[in-house]
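User: Predict structure, ligand dinuclear copper ion.
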Amino acid sequence: MTGVVTLNPFSPQAAAISHLFIAILIILGGIFLLVTALVIVAIIRYRDRPDAPEARQVFGSHRLEIAWTVAPILLLALIAVFMIRAIEASDPPVGDEHPDIRVTGHQWWWEAQYPSSGALVANEIHIPVGKSLLVEVDSADVIHDFWVPELARKIDAIPGHVNHVWIRADRPGVYQGVCAEFCGAEHTWMRLIVVAEPQADFDAWQSAQLTNPPTPKEGMEARGLQLVKDQTCLNCHAISGLPGHKNIGPDLTHIAGRQILAGGAASNTPENLFRWLKDPASIKPESHMPNFQLSDDSVHALVAYMETLK
Ligand code: CUA
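Assistant: Predicted complex:
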């Protein structure tokens, strides 16, 4: 997946990396073909034959040695120029810009805050199309690496140290992101998606994130809400309007509006949410989400409530 995605950039930053990759691939491909051709010629032309005379013995050749020293130096210098240009294009200076999004890596999910509005989301970042956004990246536990290959370069998420990356999408769409630094058992399922949409849609999404979800008064939904309060859900997860402001686990205020669950280990359907709440390990074995040994009835009520959190 990675190779193909690298060749499919949707931002100037990602394009710079993609072009560098292609340029080096062409240079290395040329060297590979040249060496292969020379080896084949040598094998055929200088093979041992009956009655062949002893091969001519050659000791040193100044011309050849200079050539095979100078040629790689020139090639490496050319590649260095390409690389410096790609670094400049993929990593524009930050200056005194304020971040548009603050991303924090957690084992094994992504938290994202929008400082200008206060919106807080998990594993799903929305951005307006055609705008370069400054993303501030850090970590709550171990070293992770934030990577959306079609939109930006990689950047390490380091506890206690803030890094920056510019992200941009020139076409609307949903772009896959991953954690690109091994960070423990569920590193594989530390994915995210970036939804790039027109400014108006982005604004609508952002203001929707800021609203409190409705409080269900009766039925399964109300029972689910009661369970959220009675169990220890709110010790780790925040739901805006309910007590507690924890972000040990993902904020659940608008969980029903998201496309993925458990860092991308499952798509966000009521069936998968049921499986996840009933037995998290069946979806993501080493996840920090505990199994509360809830009855099917209770889990159905929780799912009914969470489906109201749009
Ligand atoms: Cu986080 Cu790998």
